[in-house]
Model the fold of this input.
Amino acid sequence: MDAYDGLAPNYDAWAGYMEDDIPFYVSLAHEAAPGPVVELAVGTGRVTVAIAAETGRTVVGVDMSAGMLEVARAKARAAGVEALVDLRLGDMRALGTGSLALDAPASLIVCPFRSLLHLRGWEEKAELFRAVAATLAPGGRFAWNAFVFDPHAAASADGYASRHGDLWEYVEHAPADNRIDLTVYAGAPGVEPRTVQLWWATRSEFEGLARGAGLEIEAVYGWFDRSPYDDRSTEMVFIASKPA
Ligand SMILES: C[S@@+](CC[C@H](N)C(=O)[O-])C[C@H]1O[C@@H](n2cnc3c(N)ncnc32)[C@H](O)[C@@H]1O
Done:
């Protein structure tokens, strides 16, 4: 079973601390030219349902966890935007092919909440950037965010558990693999702990990945309010675009 399948019922409670990203991604959808809007690693539809509800645009949401997509489908129905949300099961690196083919080149592709870090190392991320560049329309944008890796924070969190509402999160740091493992457990009888793995990347690695795929870096922000990225930033928020 995919780790996120087991996390799906508890995901929104776990991710609830992250809210500032939603208006940012919605604003990009408002700004986007006509054409498909895509969310990669759509999860439970936290961002996609808001984009559909607030812009009236159709959003294609891709995820490899059937359990997460099931929650997203229910949320879209509850928000009255089921007809605007096109959820597809698959690996985001296959965007543009097979069941993840689009009717037209995309005007906006987003990948919120650090989901690119689930792709192992440079090679898997590079595959994704190539698929995004091939799928975007000229002038189309790709936006994503990732945490800024802090070796002191990683070392001090290593081996510690913290509580997020009803959920516990246990962190393990594997520096030789650029990896952080998060084990999330609900503490309820019969609920198995689930571990997800994140391969962190730096600003220059992300910029290299985008440029290597033929995209231009439009902006790197330090938060979703579009404040500048600097030494105090804890998040990298990128917008890249395909040359017109
Ligand atoms: C942190 S959640 C983010 C969900 C959602 N984007 C949000 O902002 O709440 C990460 C999601 O990435 C999905 N995922 C991980 N690797 C993937 C891949 N290679 N292709 C598609 N989805 C993937 C997981 O199933 C999970 O739903």
Notes: The longest strand covers residues 136-147.
